[in-house]
Design goal:
The protein has a seven-stranded mixed sheet, with helices on both faces. Helix content is 34%, strand content 18%. The protein is built from six helices and seven strands, in the order H-E-H-E-H-E-H-E-H-E-H-E-E.
Length: 232
Amino acid sequence: MEYGITFYSASIVCSLSANSYPKTSLNEIISMKKAILFFIPVLIILVSSFLSCVKEPDIITKTVIEHDTIVIQLTDTVTVTDFISDTATTFILLRHAETTGGGINPSLSTAGQARAEELRRILANVPITAIFASNYNRTLQTAQPTATDKSLIVKTYDPIDQSPIVDDWLNNYKGKTVLVLGHSNTIPDLLNLFLGGTVYANLPDSEYNNLYIATVSEKGSAKILHLKYGNY
């Protein structure tokens, strides 16, 4: 129930002489008093009803948590090691670096080679146990500098049917750290497998600097940290 009450205030200034001032009879004065006495209770009832319908505005505090994902800028090799867990399997996932764009299996461009070297640098202090990449030049070449630095061999996997390989990774690398190179449409699929739901969409074709750290207890139970690497 709501009441809308509008109060108008008017100020009327009159210049009246004594002769022009109207004379008021006693009966008129009594009638005016009765009218005033009648309207005062009515006004009180209306005001009371209005006040009873006015309540304090609801204060709503909404906390938005987006899939335990934090976006930060990566500036040092120490940053990555801070997020490695020894009680769950840790995956470092990213798309391949920039390519020459020629043919169906292009190699890395000069910019892509520089990014692959930057990846090696920021992972220098990270104890990586295994490195996986899809069987394409662009992913293998992005992974190779890090593999050489760690004295590891890059293993290939099928980026189309990833559920079986995720099971293998979780069984074989419990408490370890695994580096995985994929594509703009396969890395989000892996993240969704880890989380157990459709959370991540395909990456933009123009973006090559996304790096994800997934701490996975079991398939469907994971925390994802989103990082950016490189200066471009």
